[in-house]
Amino acid sequence: MTNRQFNNNYDVFHSYLVEDADYEGYIELPKIRTSNLIPQKLVPFSKAMSKSWNDFDCWVMFYEHDVKFERLWNNPKHYLEKLKKFKGVISPDFSLYRNMPLVMQQWNTYRSRALAVWLQKNDVELIPNVRFNDERTYNFCFDGVEKFKTVAVGTHGCIKNKIDKDYFKKGLAELVKRLSPKTIIVYGATPDDIFKTYKDAGIEIISFESEFSKSRKQVVA
Questions:
Q1: Which domain covers residue 109, as residue numbers?
Q2: Three-class SS of residue 195?
Q3: Domain for residue 141, yes or no?
Q4: CB 119 within 8 A of CB 156
Q5: In which order are the strands placed within the sheet that holds 126-127?
Q6: 173-190 per-position pLDDT tens digit
Q7: Which of 9-13, 26-30, 66-70, 74-78 has the lowest mean pLDDT?
């Protein structure tokens, strides 16, 4: 099949997101340039895009159900100007489930990278979220992310039982092996049996309490 120019009126693949992008890995994921800035506060995309939200001294993140931010993929341009008001963005966290076909996990990883490089192209500070799963995902999930920089991961909902926790621990070990991050931003709990080894090795671990945990505290109070 020969290459074909896409008509922008029918760009169902959103190819404009990766115009002039560089790629890495066998499935050719767009490469992200990691910001040197470190978030002090995080806000979920759904809350950040609400009409009542006016605190822009924070970073937008996507550690929430996909249904709450799928609209960003469907119409990125609609949200760009408001996203640019914030300090920065942690790239979208489209779900990877072990029972998902691998091609869907690859597609969700691609979508995250594509939106990230497009936001960067539009002058948004960007830190890559790295979402991994079982060993099959290691062949692509770290591609497109700079080494020796900052990465973000989410533990909320990912370490709630022994099986999930074991998969997370293995994936995090692979992340550190391949990317050698200077800083890991964690949305959710950072138990010592997962993170102490990396803290002791000199990696800066910056944790942010999940919205769910905050809401539970408010209910108890």
A1: 17-220
A2: helix
A3: yes
A4: no
A5: 42-44, 59-61, 88-90, 126-127
A6: 999 999 999 999 999 999
A7: 9-13
Number of domains in the chain: 1
Q: Which whole number is the average pLDDT over 48-73?
A: 97
| pLDDT tens figures, 25-50 | 999 999 999 999 999 999 999 999 99
The token pair that represents 147 in the structure block: 């080494």
Angstrom distance (rounded) from CA 33 to CA 125: 9
Q: Is residue 171 a part of any domain in this protein?
A: yes
> Which DSSP helix (H) or strand (E) runs through 151?
strand 150-154
In our burial notation (b when 16+ CB lie closer than 10 A, e otherwise), range 196-205 reads eebeeeeeee
How many CB atoms sit inside 10 A of residue 20's CB?
A: 6
Rg (CA), the chain: 17
Q: Quick check: is 10 in a domain?
A: no
Query: Are the C-beta atoms of 128 and 145 separated by less than 8 Å?
Result: yes
- What is Dmax (Cα atoms) for the chain? 63
The owner of tokens 């944790």 is 207
25: left (phi > 0), else alpha (psi -120 to 50), else beta? Answer: left
Q: How confident is the model at residue 11 (pLDDT cuts 50, 70, 90)?
A: confident
Is 90 in contact with 127 (CB distance < 8 Å)? yes
pLDDT mean across residues, the chain? 93
